[in-house]
Amino acid sequence: MNNTKKIALAAALLCASGATLAQEINPSWYIQPSVNHVKPDADFGVDDRDTGGGLKFGKAVSQNWDIQVGASQTRFEQGRSEYRQTLLGADALLMLSRERFRPFILFGLGVERDKVNNPLRNVEKNSPYGTVGIGFQASLTPQWSLQADLRTVRGFLRDDELFGFKRSNNKMLTVGVNYAFNPPPAAPMPAPAPVVEAPAPAPEPVAPPPPPAPRFQKVTLEATKMFAFDKAVVITPAPKLDEIAAALQADTTVTNVEITGYTDRLGSESYNQKLSERRAMAVREYLIGKGIDGNRLRAIGKGEANPVVECNQKGRAQLIACLEPNRRVEVDQITVEVPVQR
C-alpha cells in the first residue's frame, strides 16, 4: 500500500470516529512558524530526507473549517546532486473537533518551485501542486496551540522533458506552533435557574406603617453620548450631568455618591481599565465644576467587568454597535427625577 493510500485510509478512520462537536471557536487570525521533514521524490536525483522550515497564517472561518496560507522551503544535498523545493499555497483544514485536541483532514493547492542541479540536469521551474494529508491541533494555552500534519505533495511539472518525468510526489511531516493574535471571546454566563417559592400565608391586618424614607436609584449614562471615541473628556453641553448636579445641590444630605466607569471588551484589559477610570474621574470633575463638594463623590473604573450584553458578531462594525450598552458611566445613590420608595 503506497503512502497516498495510507493517508486516505487514515482520513477515513478519523471521519468515522465522530462528527465535529459544536464548540466555541476563536475567530482571530493566528501565525504558525514550523519545521518540515521531507522525503523527496527520488526522480529529482536525491533520496535522502532533509529538514526545512515554513511560515503560515491561519484563521477559523467556520465551525468545520480553518484556512491557512503560507510558504515553506527545503534543500536536499546528496553527493554532487542538489535539489531545492519552495512551496507557496493555501490549505483548507476540515476540523473533526473543536475540543482541546482537534484532528483534521487537509486539502491544498499552490505553486512549487523546483530547482535541480546535478551532473545530468540543471533546471529551475515553477509548477502547480496539490496536497492532501491528516493532522491535529492541540491547545496549550488560550492563544497557543501545537499543530502537526503528514501530507503528500503532488507536483504537476511543467517542461517535464527537462526534469525527465511528469509527476512528483514528496512526503512531508510538518510540526509547528500556532499563536492567535487575540484571545478567544469570553463564554456567556448561564442564566440562573428560577427559584420557585411557596406562597406566603395571608398576613394579619395591621395598621399601615409610616411612609419610609426614600432611597435613590442608579443613573446610567451612555458613554457614546458623553465622550468622543477613545477619549475621556466630557462633551458639552451635558444636560444629564447638569440634572445630576442640580439634584445633588437640592439635597445636600446625599453623600457617598459612587461614579463607576465601564468599557466594552475590545482592546487590552489594562487599557480598558485605565480608560474607565479616566472617564469616571472626568464625570466627577464635571460635577465639582458645577459646585458639588468633591468629598461627596467617589470615582472608580471597572474596565470590562459586569457587561450588560454579550456579543459574538464577526464584523467589527456590527460588534462595536452591539457592545455599545457596555460602554457606560453609572452614578449610584442619586436620582434625577422621583425618589423610589422602598
From TrEMBL:
Membrane topology: Multi-pass membrane protein
Signal peptide: 1-22
CDD domains from the UniProt entry: OmpA_C-like
Name by which UniProt lists this protein: OOP family OmpA-OmpF porin
Pfam family for this entry, one: OmpA
Gene Ontology biological process terms, A to Z: monoatomic ion transport
Gene Ontology MF annotations: porin activity
Keywords from the UniProt entry: Cell outer membrane, Ion transport, Membrane, Porin, Signal, Transmembrane, Transmembrane beta strand, Transport
Cellular location(s): Cell outer membrane
GO terms for cellular component: cell outer membrane; pore complex
UniProt superkingdom: Bacteria
The UniProt record lists the keyword Cell wall biogenesis/degradation: no
Domain OmpA-like residue range list: 214-337
InterPro entries: Bact_OuterMem_StrucFunc, Beta-barrel_OMP, OMP/PagP_B-barrel, OMP_bac, OmpA-like, OMPA-like_CS, OmpA-like_sf
